[in-house]
Design goal:
Helix content of chain A: 40-55%
CATH architecture of chain A: 3-Layer(aba) Sandwich
Number of strands of chain A: 6
Largest interface: A-B, 86 and 86 residues
Shape of chain A: globular
Strand order of the largest sheet of chain A: 3-2-4-5-1-6
Radius of gyration of chain A: 19 Å
Number of domains of chain A: 1
Structural class of chain A: alpha/beta
Largest sheet of chain A: 6 strands, parallel
Order of helices and strands of chain A: HEHEHEHHEHHEHE
Strand content of chain A: 15-25%
CATH class of chain A: Alpha Beta
Oligomer: homodimer
Distance between the termini of chain A: 51 Å
Amino acid sequence: MNDADRHVAAMKKLQNEHRERRSKARDPGRGLVLVHTGDGKGKSSSAFGVIVRALGWGQRVAVVQFIKGKWQTGERQFFAKLEGAVDWHTMGDGFTWDTQDKAGDTEAARRAFERARGMLECGDYDLVVLDEINIALRYDYLTATEVKAGLDARHERTSVILTGRDAPEELCAYADLVSEMREIKHPYKAGIRAQRGIDF
Amino acid sequence: MNDADRHVAAMKKLQNEHRERRSKARDPGRGLVLVHTGDGKGKSSSAFGVIVRALGWGQRVAVVQFIKGKWQTGERQFFAKLEGAVDWHTMGDGFTWDTQDKAGDTEAARRAFERARGMLECGDYDLVVLDEINIALRYDYLTATEVKAGLDARHERTSVILTGRDAPEELCAYADLVSEMREIKHPYKAGIRAQRGIDF
């Protein structure tokens, strides 16, 4: 076989694998639960990318940000300009290392999750993003048990993305998809400042 | 120490680490090169999320898609509706396993990369996304050497994101940031069909 023939043979094999998987695949009949975790870049940004996909298909989207507080970000400015395309709620008072107030942070996280529960149950949304909720779980502001109960109670139309490092095992076991973003190399480590439009 | 005090102590330590890192951090004085690779979900979608951040800050963005061809996606429909916010070019004829034509795919990838080089050099863009270019490298449609030369020749204002599984070692060594999206669990494996608004 020459190179072109080998390529055709390899691609036919791949194509068959894809076709077979596709022919067996079924619709879940309900929204999915996706977890983005790990120490690398891309957990929140890929949730924002999925929002873009959903909006492109005319779907309805809500976001609850659990941690980032009042910090000005590109994503918030962008979706604010789209006027009502995304229901965006930032409930946190900022990074936990800046507030240094466990009781206050817990209270803020619980209010945020109450809001999120309403969004999950109401049936208005195709996609709800719970941004950095894994950090709220990491610091015991919320329990995995109550978050799973909230996910169980979601409307069948609604998919959910939960982001943040250190997602608890119990949540990963519950989810349909878990992606771990691993830091292989990061410019912070080389002493480079967080960049507008890239990191926030 | 009680629980609240322990929390304050731990958070102060974290805050100091963040402050110290931030005080030492410098601006790179040029755009960064980011690689999103791995077998998990989130490589392209996090690039689209970074586009949202960049647009939120009023930056200019271009995308060249190397592989996905004429397949209708949420992201393309979304950015098309924004009228000129993103210069979007889909140069591939589709998945390599559907075309099964190495010479044709190579030619398409080379044309796409010529287009990308122009975008990298012209200085019009803060961010250029080379979506699925790692697949073009994986199948030897392009070489890592020529891609690095294109990145070297970019305007100092321009950051670049290169996505796709199997990013070559040479490209990862060159990049400022490498994030590996690892598949921990994926609904395809459970026989669930790719979902509109989530997967495309």
